[in-house]
Design goal:
alpha/beta, 7-stranded mixed β-sheet, 35% helix, Glycine reductase
């Protein structure tokens, strides 16, 4: 099929999702953001003296909004449409990922540490690797509208990161569009005076947008912060991001994690592979996608402006 990876090669998500949605009956393919120039700003002092912030696309659990637990199907009711913030100290927050196109066949999002590395960041602070964790973490909406992301969400995120007096920011992506959103936000932070690094699993999307620093993990979507139930692997993934903040000398600096997915290697073959679906399954997925779009449209219209 188009975009089928060779053994060991990353999935080409742009090609794979284009083929998938065309087979579901949708028209012109989505046009991903693409930039030739990339802003870059070096970190101004040793990380041991830096305050590091965290940006996530995970959503706070919404009581009454349906199943949002591990392995839950896509749930448009659980999405959020405005930048939010939460305290970075105290108990870990209850954040979930029920995004449209994370890999639900080979991972369940049951370990918060695999997609929200606050615990690993705290461990780095306790070890003296960084000076401190920022006082808040921030949630970035997943918007297919690039204009909304760049004109509404990115300025709000930048303002909050400035309020927190952050020296650098880590952004963690989940679904394909999350990778675009976090890449656009990383560019805005960098242009606004705050060095940034993206952690993700969709290399082609992040690199076509263009960011200063990117840590690529060749895992199923939803595990950009490291393997589930593996604190050592999550610490190692965070260490790559912190090292990249220190050592990158220019834009488009990408580091690939040496870690390998511990589960079924067939995940690359299976992800959004239209050739592995029956006509009935294709029709059911089209119906579910249309229903999700209607619900998302309703929620966007009900969300008050910032």
């Amino acid at each position: 099929m188009p975009g089928e990876p060779m053994s060991g090669e990353p999935i080409r998500y742009i090609e794979r999702t284009r083929s998938y949605y065309a087979a579901l009956g949708y028209g012109a393919p989505y046009r991903w953001a693409r930039f030739e120039t990339v802003p870059f700003l070096p970190v101004g002092r040793p990380l041991a003296a830096c305050r590091i912030g965290l940006v996530t696309t995970a959503a706070p659990v919404k009581p009454g909004a349906g199943d949002q637990g591990p392995g839950a199907a896509y749930n448009a009711k659980a999405k959020f449409y405005k930048v939010y913030s939460g305290p970075a100290d105290g108990p870990l927050p209850d954040l979930r990922i029920s995004h449209l196109a994370i890999d639900r066949d080979h991972t369940t999002a049951e370990d918060l540490g695999s997609y929200f590395p606050l615990a690993a960041l705290r461990r780095a602070a306790a070890a003296g690797r960084i000076g401190a964790v920022g006082p808040r973490f921030h949630g970035l909406p997943t918007n297919r509208s690039q204009a909304t992301t760049m004109e509404v969400d990115c300025p709000e995120l930048l303002a909050r990161c400035r309020e927190d007096r952050l020296d650098a920011v880590l952004l963690v992506a989940n679904c394909p569009v999350c990778h675009q959103s976090t890449a656009l936000a990383a560019r805005a932070l960098e242009a606004g005076g705050i060095p940034a690094a993206v952690l993700g699993c969709a290399r082609d999307i992040v690199e076509i947008v263009g960011v200063s620093r990117f840590v690529f993990s060749d895992f199923p979507l939803g595990n950009a912060a490291g393997p589930p139930h593996d604190p050592a692997g999550q610490d190692a993934t965070l260490a790559l991001a912190l090292g990249l903040l220190e050592t990158a000398t220019g834009p488009r600096s990408t580091v690939a994690s040496p870690l390998r997915w511990p589960g079924d290697p067939g995940w690359k073959r299976d992800y959004c592979n239209i050739e592995r679906l029956s006509a009935e399954e294709i029709a059911a997925r089209r119906a579910a996608f249309d229903a999700g779009k209607r619900e998302a449209k309703r929620l966007r219209e009900e969300t008050p402006p910032a």
